[in-house]
Write a structure and sequence with these properties.
The chain has about 350 residues and is mostly beta strands. It is built from two helices and 29 strands. It has helices spanning about 60-70, 245-250, and strands at about 5-15, 15-25, 30-35, 40-45, 50-55, 75, 80-85, 85-90, 95, 105, 120-125, 130-135, 150-155, 160-170, 175, 180, 200, 205, 220, 235, 255-260, 270-275, 285-290, 295, 305, 310-315, 320-325, 340, 345-355. Strands 11-12-13-14-29-23-22-17-20 form a nine-stranded antiparallel beta sheet, with no helix packed on it. Strands 1-2-3-4-5 form a five-stranded antiparallel beta sheet, covered by helices on one side. Strand 22 (about 270-275) and strand 23 form a beta hairpin. The longest helix is centred in the N-terminal third of the chain and has 7 residues, at about 60-70. The protein is globular, with a radius of gyration of 19 Å. The model has no long low-confidence stretch (mean pLDDT about 95).
Amino acid sequence: MGNDISQSEFGAVRGEPVTLYTLRNAHGLEVDAITYGGIIVSLRTPDRNGRLDDIVLGLDTVDDYMERSPHFGAIIGRVANRIGGARFELDGTTYTLARNKGANHLHGGVRGFDKYIWDATPFAEDAAVGVVFTRTSPDGEEGYPGTLDVRVSYTLTDEDALVVDYRATTDRATPVNLTQHSYFNLRGAGDGDVLGHELMLAASAFTPTDEGQIPTGEIRPVAGTPFDFRKPTPIGARIDADDVQLRYAGGYDHNYVLNDRDQEFHTMVPTLAAWVVEREKGRTLEVRTTEPGVQLYTGNGLDGVVGKKGHVYGPRSAFCLETQHFPDSPNQPTFPSIILRPGQVYRSRTVFAFGHQ
């Protein structure tokens, strides 16, 4: 078995065709991604017995993704996560963004990067296959300044890793914070909850929020709190603890401050952010990134979404590990900056490495 890439139709959006690319590596791992939103619609990996299961939540048709997707598997931008009050000030000018989460701005707005058809170019190398997605976000899109040229590539390697590379340039100063929003269940999508998955996060602190889940600006140690995953711990061990932060989010939906990070845009050496194991089937996931933060989300808002093959996704039936700069960074002067200026190049890399034990 060798590397392979193929493509097929996945419907259309407003008359424009949506293409599905299937990436396969030498060990049988398969990734399906579509040009609408750069969405990873399925990801099949073997368990300890060699059985392939799809381990990401998703929907059956592009119409479903357009109508009722909670950002399943998509590229998120121009700015991932929340911006408080849907506004920020940059170089003396106040910019007002689309409000799509109460009074706040979430995941790029009403029509973020996840709701556009991207141009796509497949590629094959000796030990990897992949697809490169590109689009231009025009000046003023969802309220953001500057024309932003974006390139996101998915590379499936023979080392059983999916490498996500981001690149962007702009003609005006603008905030940029891109991420990949796959929902994982290492038992298999639709196969129960993820509370028994054991999680380790390479993070000694997190950024607490107010009731609207906007960071307060504090960087709080995880020691002695339900947010301490420095040692492998079941996701569900403390998810219902009597903690105001957990009550605000209905579980985990928080940004973790990763240890020993180089927070400059130019760094491209991913280091460990997270490790997850599901003991029954034995699958593991390791996440490495160049980003300073990772958002742990436990699918608290899933409310019985009917997904692929009729599976019903309830609360806590998946987890997300969204590598990123911190939420609300444009309004938080002590957080690492996400402002990209003309002449600079935004670069970021995240590696999702799959295995079993």
